[in-house]
Amino acid sequence: MNTKANVLLYILWVILPASFLSADITDAWDATNTSLHDWRVMSFPFDEIFRCAVILDSLNGWVWVHNSQYVYHLKDGQWLLMSEFDGSKLENYFGYFDNFLWFRCLDKINYRYFILQYNETESKRIYPPNADRIRDVCYLSADNIWCACEWGEILHFDGQRWTLFQTPTFMHINQILMLENDTGWILGEAFNQELINFWNGKNWQKIDADFNKGKGWSDVKIKLDASTYYYFGKTDENLLLRLKSSGIESINFSDILKDTLSLNWKIVKNPLVYHRSGSYLTVDLNNYFVEAKGKNEVFFYEMAENKTANAHLLTSDGSLFPTKINYQNIFPRGKAQFTGTRTDRMRGGYGVAFGDFDSDGDDDYYLVDTEDRNNLFLFGGNSTILASSPITFVEAADRLKISGAVILKNGKNVYDMGVCWADIENDGDRDAYITSMYGENELFKNISNRKFEDIAQRANVTGGQARSNVACWGDVNNDGAVDLFVANEDTTNMLFLNDGAGQFREISEKAGLRTAQRGKGATFGDIDNDGDLDLVVTFFGRRNKIYRNMGIDRETKLPRFIDDTDRCLPVNADSLAKSTSAVLADLDNDGDLDLYITNLIFTNRLYQNDGSGIFRDITVAAGVRDSSLSHSSCFFDADNDGDLDFYVTNRGKNLFYLNNGVGKFNQNEDMFELMDQLAYSTGVACGDPDNDGDVDCYLANTDQPSVYFRNDLNNQNYLKIKLIGTKSNRDAIGAKTWLFQAGHLGETDFCLGLRELSGGSGYGCQNSLVIHYGVDATKKYDLKVWFPSGIIKTYQDIEPAQLLTIEEETGIAKAVSLAHKWLIRSIFNRTNQFKFMLTLTILLVLSVVSWLMVHFKKAEPGFAWRLTLIPFAAYFILMALLYGAEFLLADVLPVGFAMLTFGVVFWLLKARTLRIGRERIAEDLLMTCLAFDHGATGTSILNQLQLFCTNLSFDAKNLSANVLRQLQETIIAFYDQVFGALKRICELAKDATVDIYQAEELKRQLISISNYLNDIKVNINLDKNIKKDVWENIYRLVDSVKLNIKAIKGSAMSLLACDAVSLIRNQVARAAKLVHYPIIVNGSAESLPSQVCIKPDELAAIIDNLLQNGHRSMKACPDPAFTIDFKTTDRYLLVNVSDRGEGIPRKYWDRVFERTFTTKTGGKGGFGLYYARHTLAKYGGGIEIVNSRKNRGTVFRINLLII
Prior knowledge:
By secondary structure, this protein is of the alpha+beta class. The chain has seven domains: 47-127, Thrombin, subunit H (Beta Barrel), CATH 2.40.10; 138-258 and 268-279, no CATH class; 285-325, no CATH class; 338-550 and 557-796, YVTN repeat-like/Quinoprotein amine dehydrogenase (Methylamine Dehydrogenase, Chain H), CATH 2.130.10; 811-913; 918-1055; 1075-1201, Histidine kinase-like ATPase, C-terminal domain (Heat Shock Protein 90). Helices cover 22% and strands 32% of the residues. Strands 25, 46, 47, 48, 49, 50, 51 and 52 form an eight-stranded antiparallel beta sheet that branches. It has a five-stranded mixed beta sheet with strand order 61-63-64-66-65. Strand 40 (545-552) and strand 41 (559-563) form a beta hairpin. Helix 9 packs antiparallel against helix 12 (1028-1055) and helix 14 packs antiparallel against helix 15 (1168-1178). The longest helix has 48 residues, at 887-934.
C-alpha cells in the first residue's frame, strides 16, 4: 500500500461509544504481523446502504440500513430482518453495551426522543433529559452511564436517576470517555477554545498542546485494557493523541499502522470483508467508498472517479456511520384554506425572509440552507419551483451572487442560520445579512438590483466566527440609519451602530448590551411606546432578557440600554427553558406590543403588555400552552378578521393558533395542508407576493422539503400599507401604524390594532415590511402613522381593499432629507468617496468652463447653468446606470460622455437658446395680455373700480348696503382674478426682457392699488370715512395700469412681428410655379401695414393649408384661380383668400374649424383649419368663412393684429 493510502483522510464526525479491546489486540500495532493481510469475503444478501454494522464474529452481528427503520440480524450465519421498532424512528447509534444495541429514537406519535436498548429478544426505553441533544454515550455499567450533550451538558445515570454533571464549557461535547476510577476526558467542538478537557476526580483541567488548536477532530476513541493509554484521532495530520492523566502527547503511526488491503484486490459489489486479525483501522482507498464495517470487517462501494472519498476510523465494537442520510420524498395533499406546496430542492432550510429584493413592487423571499447554498426566489418570473401552484418564483441567488459560501477552507460546512434585510445606506434597494454557525457572517450589498456583493469585512460586521444564530435590524438611536444586533453562542451578543453610509462599529459594551454567551434569538420593538426601540434577547439555558432603550447618553453620545428584565418579565421566566426566539406583536389589538417566546424544553410563553412595557404571563389563559421543541413563530391575520393569528414551528407537529378576538386562541389544523406531517421545522415568515390581499407564509424544514403555504382566502377584507422613510431609515423599520374605526382617530377604545415594522424576529426570520390589516370591506377607517423620526401622519375615511403607499415627507422636505442621506453615504462610505470626489470635480470644471465662455462670448443669462447642468446630468445618469461595473465603464466612460455632451450642448445652445427662449416667453406674455384685455375678468373689473371711484360718496356711513356689497365683491374679484394675472404679466415681461421698466412700474402700481383697497375694506368694517384722495389715487393708478399693459403687449407683439404682405406674396410666387392656373394678389404694399403679430412660420403654415385645400376643391373646375385681397382696419390686416372650388354648405361654415371635422372625400383631415383658428386666436387674430357658394368657390378671411 502506498503512502497516500496510509494517510487518514476525511474521517467522519459522528458519535461513537467507549469500547474495549482485549490485550492481545495490541499485537495489531505491529507492522510485522503478516496476519494483517489475511482477508476473506462474506456475502450480504440485501441491496441496502448501511448506516452502521456491528459484527460480533463471523456468524453473528447486526446491520442498520440507511432508511433508519430496519435492522438486519446476522444469527448463526443467517440474515434476518427485524421489526420496525413500534413506529419509532432510529436516528443515532451509540454502541453495543451488555448485549444491547443503543440507539437514539424518535417516537413518531408524540415526537419525543428516547434511548432504545435493543436485541433479538427484548427492547427497553430510557428517557434521559435532553435526549434529542445527546451526542455520545459512555457505558461503564448499568448504574454508571455518561452522556455527552450539546451546549456543554453532561448527564450521569447512577442506576436510579439522571443528574447534570458539572461541565467546563458551554459548547457542544462530541465525545466523552470516563473511566472506572472516576476520571475521564471530553472532546468539545468550539472556536477559540480548548477542545480537550480532563476530569481528575475533583475538577476539570484544560489539556494544552500545540496541536490542540486544529479543526476536524475525529470521533474515535480507543481504550486499551493492557495499558493506561487513551486515544483520540486527528484528521488533518497522520496523528493519534495519547491521553494521560498527566497530559497529552501525539503518536505518529504512519510507520506502525499499515493498511491491510491491497489496492489491486478485486472489489465485489456489496461485500462484507472479514479480517481475522482484528484490525480496526481503515483509510482512504481512492475510488472506493468505505460504507460500513463491523468488528474486523470492512464494507466497500466502488465510486465515481470525481467523487470525494471518505474514510472511517473504527472502535473494537465495529461501529461505523456514513456521511449522509437519504430521506424518501412523499408529500400527501389535502384540502385546506392554505395550500401547501413542497419546494423539492429545499432541505436544510432555516431562516426565511420576505422582502422586495429587486425593487419591483412585490415580495420575494430568501431561504437560508444549512447544508447547501442559500436561495433567493424572485416573484413573477417565467419558471417556478412550486410544482402545483399558480404563484411563480424564479431562483436567482447564483445569478445575483447572494447564495453565500457553503464550505470553509477546513472543509467544514458553513452552516448558515438566519437572514434579515434592510437598506443599510438608504440608497433605495435592500441589503441582506446572513448569520453563520461556523463561518463568518455575510452582509450582501445590493448593487442597483443587478447583483450583490459581500461587504461584511469592509463594513466590520463579520462577527468573527462567533457561532451567530440570528440578527435583526433597528434604528436604536433614531438617526435615520438601521443598526444591527447579532445573537451569538460563543461570544457576547453584538450591537453594531450604522454611520448612515453602511459602515458599522461595535458598541455592545458602551451601550450596556454586553451579555453572556448562548444568545439564540433577538428582536427589536418599542414595548413602552416611548419612541425608541427596546430589545428582547432569548438565551439557551439562561434567563431571557429585556433591554430598555433609555435614549442617547449625554457623555458618550451613544444609545444606552439597561437590563429591565426583573421589572418587565415575571420572576424566573424561562430561565431553564432553552428559549429559541421572540416575537413582538399586538395580539389583543390594544395598541401595544405583546411578547411570544418559543422554547425547546418547556412550553412556549405568551406575555401581555400593560402598555408600559410590563408583561404578565397569559399562556394558560389564552389557550396557547403547548409542548416544547419549538423553534420559531410568525404572527399574521390569516383569515382577515382583524386580529393576529400565529404559526409555531416545532420538531414534530407544527401548530397554528386562530385568534377568536376575545383573548383566546384555538388550534386550527384544517386551515393548513400538511399540518399533520411530522418534520424538523425551523423558520417561518409571511408576506403577500401575489398581492391578493391575504397573507401567505413559507415554512423551512431541515429534514424534508420546505413548504410554501399559499392563502386561498381571496376576499376584499384587507388594507395593506407600504411606508417609505425619508428622514427616517428608507424601509421605515421601527415605524408604527394604528388603525381606528372611521371618525374615531386616536381614540383608544376604537383602536383596531398596532403594527410595528420589524427588522427581524422569530428564529432567524423576517416578515414582509408591507403592513397588513384584516378589515371589513364595507366600512371605512382612520389611520395614524408614526415614523422613527417623530413625524406623525394621519388619514381619514380610508377605503379597504387597497395598497396605501405613504411617504414620510414630500416636496422640499423630502428632497432635503434624501440629499442629506446621499451626501452621508457619498462622503463617509469608502467605496463611494472616489465617485463623490470625481462628481464634484466634474461639476466644478463644467461650471468654471461655462462661466468663462459666457463671460468672453457675451451669452445670454442662464446660459451657463444650462451648459453646466445638462452635461453633468448626462454624467450622473450614465454613472448611475453603470454603477457596479468595472472601473473603465463605471468611471471613465461617464466622464468622457459628459465632455462630449458639453460640446454638443454648447453648440446647440449658442445658436438657439436666445431666440427660442425669448420667443416662447413673448408668446406666453402676448397671450396673457390678450386674455386680460379681452376677457371679462380683467379690464371689466378695473373699469368697475374706476366706476366706484367716480360715483361713490367718500363717507362709508352714507353708502347703502347694496352698494357696499357690490364694492366688496369687486375688491375680492380684484384679488382673485386681476392681481394674479397682472403679476404674471410682470414676470413674463421680465423673463422676455420686454419693457422691464413698464413691468416694474406695473408691479408697483398693483401694490399701491392693493394697499388702497385694503384701507377701504378696513374703513368699511369700522364705518369710517374714506378719504377723497384714496378714490382719486385708485382711479389714476388703474389708468396707469391699462397704459402699461398696452405698452407691454405692444412690445411682446414686436418680438413676434411678421411682414405678412411680403411673406404671402413670396409664398404665392412659389406656389404659382407649381400650378397651371393664376394666383392673383390685390393690394398695394405701400398702403398696407408692414408688421402684424404672428410668427412667420405659423402664418406660412396657415396660408399653405388654405392653398392646398383650395387646390383640391378646384380639381373639377374648368377655370380654376386663386385671389388674395389685402384690406386694413384700425387694428387688423384683413387677408381674403378666395378659390373657385366646390364651395362649403352654409351649415358647415363654423364646423369646418372644429378638430377632426372635414368636408373632404374619404373623411380624412380636419386638423388644418382647427390649427389655423387656434394659432390666430393665440395672437389676437382669427379666421372665418365670409362667403361660399356651390361650384362658385369659398372666401376665407384672416384677421391679423397690426403692431
